[in-house]
Write a structure and sequence with these properties.
The chain is α/β, with parallel strands linked by helices. Helix content is 36%, strand content 24%. A six-stranded parallel sheet has the order 3-2-1-5-4-6, with helices on both faces. A two-stranded antiparallel ribbon has the order 7-8. The longest helix has 17 residues, at 13-29.
């Protein structure tokens, strides 16, 4: 299956701790394979994401990169489709079939979400500037909606590998089982 990478631009340690963590959690839970974060380098953020993966499974990785242009260039050269989520873009329902076709035909995707201010150059580098409705909201909501429409809900049934914890879905209460690293139930 083709790979989905999320690029989160412009992380600020002081103001974006929770938002960037939630962007990463959504990326993982909704079927992306990795997140690359640019802006302020924040090792504790990477450790937080890694500890979620250790507990709840993967594969999913997170890393910082200094140069967002370099990331986009590398993905372009490798043949990935560059998607930039922005309220100024083409509205999702009008473009998702085309993007989904590319993805199902084997094209990797780089999905870019911004922070406070997105450099104008990003709009030109993207193959698709896509709006999740042409109203301002949030990078967390935009990413979740895009990934869900792309995968038509299939991502919600994804099995995560090497988890230590697994939830048994329940209409009432919380049922969590502890697994050995092999995936078997701990006695
Ligand atoms: C605080 S918002 C900034 C809004 C920004 N002016 C824009 O271009 O969408 C931060 C990020 O949320 C995402 N975002 C917010 N609203 C969106 C929308 N309606 N459609 C797609 N992405 C959106 C974008 O990735 C944006 O860079």
């Amino acid at each position: 299956m083709s790979k989905i990478t999320v690029l989160r631009l412009g992380h600020r340690i002081a103001r974006d701790k929770r938002v960037t963590t939630h962007v990463a959690l959504v990326a993982r839970a909704y079927g992306a394979h990795e997140i690359i974060i640019t802006g302020d380098r924040d090792d504790s953020l990477i450790h937080r994401i890694e500890s979620i993966v250790e507990k709840w499974g993967g594969p999913f990785s997170a890393r910082f990169e200094d140069n967002w242009r370099g990331v986009i260039r590398r993905f372009k050269e490798a043949g990935a489709t560059i998607i930039h989520l922005t309220m100024y873009g083409v509205n999702l329902p009008d473009i998702i079939d085309e993007v989904r076709r590319l993805w199902r035909d084997g094209k990797d995707l780089l999905v870019i979400v911004g922070g406070e201010k997105v450099p104008g150059e990003v709009y030109g580098l993207a193959d698709y500037n896509i709006a999740i409705g042409n109203q301002p909201h949030s990078e967390i909501a935009a990413l979740a909606t895009f990934l869900d429409w792309l995968q038509e809900g299939e991502e919600l049934r994804k099995e995560f590998l090497n988890a230590r914890l697994k939830i048994i879905p329940s209409l009432r209460g919380k049922i969590v089982i502890h697994l050995e690293s092999s995936g078997s139930l701990k006695q």
